[in-house]
Amino acid sequence: MSSVAALDRHLSATNPAHEARLACRRGELTGHTAGIAPGYVQGNLCIVEKEYATDFAAFCQRNPKPCPVIGMSAVGDPSLPDLGDIDIRTDLPRYRVFENGVCVDEPTDIRERWNDNMVAFVLGCSYSFEAPLMDAGIPMYHIERDTIVPMYRTNIDCVPAGRFSGKMVVSMRMLTPAQAIRAVQITSRFPNVHGAPIHFGLPEKIGVADIMQPDYGAPPPVVNDELVPVFWACGVTPQSVVLDAKLPLCITHMPGSMLVTDKINADLAVL
User: Fold this and answer.
1) Distance between CA 2 and CA 5 in Å, rounded?
2) What is the pLDDT of residue 5?
3) 140, part of any domain
4) Within 13 Å of residue 219, how many CA atoms lie on the same side as its CB?
5) Which of 131, 133, 177, 125 has the alpha carbon at shortest distance from 151?
6) Strand intervals (E) in 1-117
7) Using CA atoms, how far apart are residues 198 and 232, in angstroms rounded to an integer?
8) Of 31, 32, 55, 249, which is the most buried if we count CB atoms within 10 A?
């Protein structure tokens, strides 16, 4: 066994986040990452060319609920050492490639698309607060049923910056009222992964006509009269925004298929 292979084997045995990224590099993990490497921070991805990076950074700064930046690469550098031994071109299960606002490809590897003009942004993901919710006895039905959390475009305007503007995207989890109150308390501690919910109940008030028809992800697996929909700002928002910006080239993660980092969820807690 080579020294590199031996190191990878050691890290995989002690670091499930690294193991998940290795599985992506090998093409073995191509689906969603909900429930993978519990306790480790997961991130949404948005890659833009450097001439748009300043405006995108400003957009994130002005919209911290849906777009909390937890990592940013140097121009042309696919590594993110602050988040782990990462190659952003290979270490997500699946990507989406946009040209002029149109999704033209959904590959599992973007090495052929990467160029020296690109900047990668990693945004906090609500998957990171799901472990604390489950630790508190709050069920995450999409994890139990091995589906992707439902996500919806809303009528909530983001604050524009340069070419970037549009509506907020939210993720949704069905909870009892008592669980919703507890979820507010728990997720408020994690502003870098969207923080507290932005809305619960009455989905039509935020422009969601039918919770059974999400714009991204899968329909909620459990719906009944004892549960209310609870909505969090979502890091898929940039994917909605880049459709309107019509950048010549932009690469994002496939919704639900995140970058698993070496950061620990507890390190992002503020209280």
Assistant:
1) 5
2) 42
3) yes
4) 7
5) 125
6) 40-49, 69-72, 95-99, 102-105
7) 5
8) 32
**Average pLDDT rounded to a whole number, residues 22-35:** 92
Domain span holding position 86: 3-123+247-268
Residue 111: exposure state from Cβ atoms within 10 A (0-12, 13-18, ≥19):
exposed
Q: Give me 67's structure tokens.
A: 């777009």
Residue 13: the pLDDT is 54
> Could you tell me if 60 and 155 lie in one domain?
no
Q: Give the number of domains in the chain.
A: 2
173 domain residue, yes or no: yes
In terms of domains, do 93 and 174 share one?
no
pLDDT band (50, 70, 90) for residue 34: confident
Whether 210 and 256 map to the same domain: the answer is: no
Measured CA to CA, the distance from residue 199 to residue 156 in angstroms comes to: 11
d(CA 94, CA 110): 9
How many CB atoms are closer than 10 A to CB 58? Answer: 15
CB-neighbour burial class of residue 183 (10 A; exposed 0-12, middle 13-18, buried 19+): buried
Query: Which DSSP letter does residue 7 get?
Result: H
Residues 82 and 38 in one domain: yes
